Amino acid sequence: MRKVLITILFIISIAISGEKKLTLGDCIQIALEKNLEMSIANKQLKAVQEGVRASYGNILPYISFRTNATKFTQGPTDISMAYGGFVIDTTSSTSRMNQYNTGVTYSQNLFDGGKWWNSIKLAKNTYKGAVVDRDRARQLMIVNVTEKFYNVLKAQELLKVYSKSLENSQEQLKKTKELHRIGQVAKKDLFKGQVREGNDRLNVIQQKSMLKSAISDLNIAMGLAPNEPLEVYEKAYQKPESIDPETAEQRAFENNLELNSLTAQKQSAFLNYKIAKGDRYPTLSSSFSYSRGGSELSRTYSELDKWWNTSLNLNLSYPLFDGFRRKTNIQQKLLNYKIYNDQIEKKKMDIQNLVQNLLLALETYKEMIEINELNIQSAQEDLRLAQEMYRLNSATLLEVLDAQVELTRARGNLVTTKYDAKIAEVQLALVMGTL
Asked: Where in the chain is the domain with CATH 1.20.1600.10?
């Protein structure tokens, strides 16, 4: 309740201020309250929870109350009667009769081969699996929001890179125009500068469009309107941490929710097998009924020592032959149970492979970040030298523009690598079940 209140107050505050500058934690908290997939998962869990209570119906008694009134009318009929050696034909008159009855019936299942308690276990295990599925839906939602969040951050940072490149190209074009005016550079240099400035302007326009699309994706992931304006930020970039492969695999085998879901499904398959085996045994049930009534309505509620009857029934049944349906059903349930052993082993192999690939990707990203940081320093120095040499007529404008392009590329590569690494990191956390 406290989290809900905090979220509501947060949304109200940004609505009043007209600004939405969100951290990753803010985005996830909004998604937990607004995302429709989470709402659906929670409702599905409640529906399964009701199934646990319903499963007790096989052992709890069944009690029913009944009351009825019957009016019987018979028209005139021909009757032949033998009397003193003679047959007398006569016609009866119309007859009418009323019958009133009320009663209570109590039925109880005594034994059904263990099916009732295994059904209760199955319902509880199904609920346990539904909790795992709900938690996995929550983790998938967090991963989706996180990926969309870092895509927005990436788009914002790339827009800054391209905007900075546009500023540099505009400044360079301004200098080139001045040098061309005084006759120090050829007209081809002016054209090259204009082309470079135009390409940078186009990159900025395209990146603004990509940023808008990324914001729309993040809004949808959070359960908000696609065109809702917002801005995201990160206080400080944290480089991915190194994880020991054996530790990562162990955590994944212990905590991976997809693997845990398969384990719960395997247990359900085993309980279904035990329920099917219950058909091998006889069933025993009992019932007791009490009723009273007669041709007058008052007999259903007056003179309680009269007009009543009771019955007690004990029923034992066992099918001798059912066309092999029972045997076939048991074998099918057993095979379904054994299939999960192979599915779990396959899932473990998939998890192991995915963990290794993600760890390798993270280590690669970490090295790429360090290399791109050095590339930026080198590209900055190359650009500075090219500009200085161009000013001294020792280098061409093409060399300056190429240096500027390399600096922009290095900065863009660093931004892309940094946030791709964060996305790989959260994907690894999902596999390990540590979100």
From this structure: 2-34+112-282+318-432
What was the pLDDT predicted at 13?
47
Name the segment(s) of the chain with CATH classification 2.20.200: 59-111+285-317
pTM of the predicted model over 0.85: no
* 179 Cβ neighbours under 8 A, 6+ residues apart: 185, 189
Within a 13 Å sphere around the CA of 365, how many CA atoms are in the beta-carbon half? 22
For residue range 102-155, list pLDDT tens digits in order: 999 999 999 888 888 999 999 999 999 999 999 999 999 999 999 999 999 999
Q: What is the pLDDT of residue 134?
A: 92
pLDDT tens track for 382-431: 989 988 887 787 878 888 888 999 999 999 999 999 999 999 999 999 99
Tokens of 41: 């998962």
Question: Does domain 59-111+285-317 bear CATH number 2.60.420?
Answer: no
The Cβ-side half-sphere exposure at 410, using a 13 Å CA radius, reads 20
Residue-wise DSSP of 107-120 = EEEEESTTHHHHHH
CATH number of 2-34+112-282+318-432: 1.20.1600.10
What the block records as the tokens of 142 is 């967090």
Q: Hey, which residues does 107 pair with through a beta bridge? A: 62, 287
* Nearest Cα residue to 155 out of 210, 115, 105, 101: 210
Contact indicator for 311, 288 with CB cutoff of 8 Å: yes
